[in-house]
Amino acid sequence: MAAKALSFDVGDYVVYPKHGVGRVIELQRQEIAGMQLELYVLRFEKERMTLRVPTNKAESVGMRKLSSDKTLREALETLTGKPRVKRTMWSRRAQEYEAKINSGDLVSIAEVVRDLFRADDQPEQSYSERQIFEGATSRLARELAAMEQVDEPTAQEKILEILRKAAAIHNKDKAPA
Hints:
The chain has helices at residues 69-79, 90-103, 106-116, 127-148, 152-174, and strands at residues 13-16, 20-32, 35-44, 49-54, 64-65. By secondary structure, the chain is of the alpha+beta class. β1 and β2 form a beta hairpin. It is elongated, with a radius of gyration of 19 Å. Residues 7-117 form the CarD-like/TRCF RNAP-interacting domain.
Protein backbone atom coordinates (compact mmCIF):
# COMPACT_ATOMS: atom_id res chain seq x y z
CA MET A 1 0.00 0.00 0.00
CA ALA A 2 2.16 2.84 -1.27
CA ALA A 3 -0.78 5.23 -1.62
CA LYS A 4 -1.49 7.26 1.51
CA ALA A 5 -4.90 6.60 2.99
CA LEU A 6 -7.39 9.42 3.46
CA SER A 7 -5.92 12.07 5.67
CA PHE A 8 -7.81 13.93 8.33
CA ASP A 9 -6.42 16.51 10.72
CA VAL A 10 -7.18 17.04 14.40
CA GLY A 11 -10.31 19.22 14.59
CA ASP A 12 -11.77 18.02 11.27
CA TYR A 13 -15.40 16.93 11.18
CA VAL A 14 -15.74 13.52 9.57
CA VAL A 15 -18.60 11.18 8.76
CA TYR A 16 -18.37 7.59 9.95
CA PRO A 17 -21.20 5.73 8.15
CA LYS A 18 -22.56 3.77 11.11
CA HIS A 19 -22.37 6.67 13.60
CA GLY A 20 -22.72 9.91 11.64
CA VAL A 21 -20.75 13.09 12.20
CA GLY A 22 -17.83 13.02 14.59
CA ARG A 23 -14.73 15.09 15.13
CA VAL A 24 -11.09 13.99 14.96
CA ILE A 25 -9.81 14.87 18.44
CA GLU A 26 -6.43 13.19 18.30
CA LEU A 27 -4.00 11.14 16.22
CA GLN A 28 -2.53 8.30 18.31
CA ARG A 29 0.17 5.71 17.90
CA GLN A 30 -0.45 2.45 19.74
CA GLU A 31 1.17 -0.92 19.80
CA ILE A 32 -1.43 -3.62 19.37
CA ALA A 33 -0.41 -7.29 19.13
CA GLY A 34 3.18 -6.25 18.50
CA MET A 35 2.29 -3.94 15.60
CA GLN A 36 2.56 -0.17 15.59
CA LEU A 37 -0.75 1.38 14.56
CA GLU A 38 -1.65 4.97 13.78
CA LEU A 39 -5.20 5.73 14.89
CA TYR A 40 -7.69 8.52 14.37
CA VAL A 41 -9.50 9.17 17.64
CA LEU A 42 -13.04 10.30 16.81
CA ARG A 43 -15.49 11.86 19.25
CA PHE A 44 -19.24 11.63 18.69
CA GLU A 45 -20.72 14.15 21.13
CA LYS A 46 -24.37 13.19 20.75
CA GLU A 47 -23.68 9.53 21.59
CA ARG A 48 -20.94 10.43 24.11
CA MET A 49 -18.76 7.95 22.29
CA THR A 50 -15.09 7.81 21.35
CA LEU A 51 -13.98 5.63 18.46
CA ARG A 52 -10.46 4.71 17.38
CA VAL A 53 -10.03 3.99 13.68
CA PRO A 54 -6.71 2.78 12.22
CA THR A 55 -5.61 5.35 9.65
CA ASN A 56 -5.07 2.63 7.04
CA LYS A 57 -8.67 1.39 7.52
CA ALA A 58 -10.40 4.80 7.38
CA GLU A 59 -11.22 4.51 3.69
CA SER A 60 -12.35 0.88 3.79
CA VAL A 61 -14.86 1.55 6.60
CA GLY A 62 -16.27 4.45 4.57
CA MET A 63 -15.02 7.29 6.78
CA ARG A 64 -15.16 10.54 4.81
CA LYS A 65 -14.95 14.30 5.08
CA LEU A 66 -18.21 16.28 5.28
CA SER A 67 -20.20 16.32 2.04
CA SER A 68 -19.61 18.94 -0.61
CA ASP A 69 -21.99 21.90 -0.94
CA LYS A 70 -23.27 20.30 -4.15
CA THR A 71 -24.14 17.06 -2.32
CA LEU A 72 -25.82 19.02 0.48
CA ARG A 73 -27.93 20.96 -2.04
CA GLU A 74 -28.85 17.67 -3.73
CA ALA A 75 -29.90 16.17 -0.36
CA LEU A 76 -32.02 19.22 0.54
CA GLU A 77 -33.54 19.11 -2.97
CA THR A 78 -34.40 15.43 -2.35
CA LEU A 79 -36.46 16.50 0.68
CA THR A 80 -38.73 18.58 -1.57
CA GLY A 81 -39.59 15.58 -3.75
CA LYS A 82 -42.76 13.51 -3.55
CA PRO A 83 -42.44 10.76 -0.91
CA ARG A 84 -42.04 7.27 -2.33
CA VAL A 85 -43.73 4.64 -0.23
CA LYS A 86 -43.31 1.10 -1.44
CA ARG A 87 -46.10 -1.34 -0.78
CA THR A 88 -43.78 -3.99 0.63
CA MET A 89 -43.87 -5.32 4.16
CA TRP A 90 -42.69 -2.88 6.83
CA SER A 91 -39.87 -5.16 8.00
CA ARG A 92 -38.33 -5.17 4.52
CA ARG A 93 -38.75 -1.39 4.12
CA ALA A 94 -37.25 -0.84 7.60
CA GLN A 95 -34.18 -2.88 6.58
CA GLU A 96 -33.80 -0.81 3.41
CA TYR A 97 -34.14 2.44 5.37
CA GLU A 98 -31.54 1.33 7.93
CA ALA A 99 -29.15 0.33 5.13
CA LYS A 100 -29.54 3.77 3.54
CA ILE A 101 -28.92 5.53 6.87
CA ASN A 102 -25.86 3.39 7.63
CA SER A 103 -24.44 3.95 4.13
CA GLY A 104 -23.49 7.44 5.29
CA ASP A 105 -24.64 8.83 1.91
CA LEU A 106 -26.35 12.17 2.54
CA VAL A 107 -28.78 11.89 -0.39
CA SER A 108 -29.85 8.36 0.65
CA ILE A 109 -30.45 9.58 4.21
CA ALA A 110 -32.51 12.49 2.82
CA GLU A 111 -34.64 9.97 0.88
CA VAL A 112 -35.44 8.13 4.12
CA VAL A 113 -36.34 11.41 5.87
CA ARG A 114 -38.57 12.44 2.94
CA ASP A 115 -40.31 9.06 2.69
CA LEU A 116 -41.04 8.76 6.42
CA PHE A 117 -42.09 12.38 7.09
CA ARG A 118 -45.70 12.85 8.20
CA ALA A 119 -47.33 16.26 8.10
CA ASP A 120 -49.73 17.18 10.91
CA ASP A 121 -52.75 16.34 8.75
CA GLN A 122 -51.45 12.89 7.80
CA PRO A 123 -51.95 9.58 9.66
CA GLU A 124 -49.76 8.84 12.69
CA GLN A 125 -46.54 6.93 12.29
CA SER A 126 -45.91 3.66 14.05
CA TYR A 127 -43.31 3.66 16.81
CA SER A 128 -40.67 1.98 14.63
CA GLU A 129 -41.34 4.37 11.70
CA ARG A 130 -40.91 7.33 14.05
CA GLN A 131 -37.66 5.88 15.46
CA ILE A 132 -36.15 5.45 11.99
CA PHE A 133 -37.40 8.89 10.90
CA GLU A 134 -35.88 10.56 13.97
CA GLY A 135 -32.58 8.70 13.51
CA ALA A 136 -32.32 9.68 9.85
CA THR A 137 -33.34 13.29 10.54
CA SER A 138 -30.78 13.56 13.32
CA ARG A 139 -28.03 12.12 11.09
CA LEU A 140 -28.90 14.58 8.30
CA ALA A 141 -29.19 17.49 10.73
CA ARG A 142 -25.78 16.81 12.29
CA GLU A 143 -24.02 16.94 8.94
CA LEU A 144 -26.01 20.03 7.90
CA ALA A 145 -25.17 21.68 11.24
CA ALA A 146 -21.45 20.94 10.88
CA MET A 147 -21.42 22.27 7.32
CA GLU A 148 -23.41 25.44 8.03
CA GLN A 149 -21.80 25.92 11.47
CA VAL A 150 -25.10 26.03 13.36
CA ASP A 151 -26.40 23.83 16.18
CA GLU A 152 -28.30 20.62 15.51
CA PRO A 153 -31.78 21.90 16.56
CA THR A 154 -31.45 24.81 14.09
CA ALA A 155 -30.46 22.41 11.30
CA GLN A 156 -33.31 20.05 12.24
CA GLU A 157 -35.82 22.90 12.10
CA LYS A 158 -34.56 23.86 8.62
CA ILE A 159 -35.09 20.26 7.44
CA LEU A 160 -38.61 20.08 8.94
CA GLU A 161 -39.50 23.43 7.36
CA ILE A 162 -38.47 22.14 3.90
CA LEU A 163 -40.52 18.96 4.50
CA ARG A 164 -43.63 20.89 5.65
CA LYS A 165 -43.55 23.15 2.59
CA ALA A 166 -43.09 20.15 0.29
CA ALA A 167 -45.95 18.27 2.02
CA ALA A 168 -48.25 21.27 1.58
CA ILE A 169 -47.48 21.34 -2.16
CA HIS A 170 -47.88 17.57 -2.63
CA ASN A 171 -51.09 17.44 -0.58
CA LYS A 172 -52.55 20.28 -2.64
CA ASP A 173 -51.97 18.14 -5.75
CA LYS A 174 -54.12 15.39 -4.21
CA ALA A 175 -57.05 17.68 -3.33
CA PRO A 176 -60.10 17.15 -5.56
CA ALA A 177 -60.77 20.05 -7.91
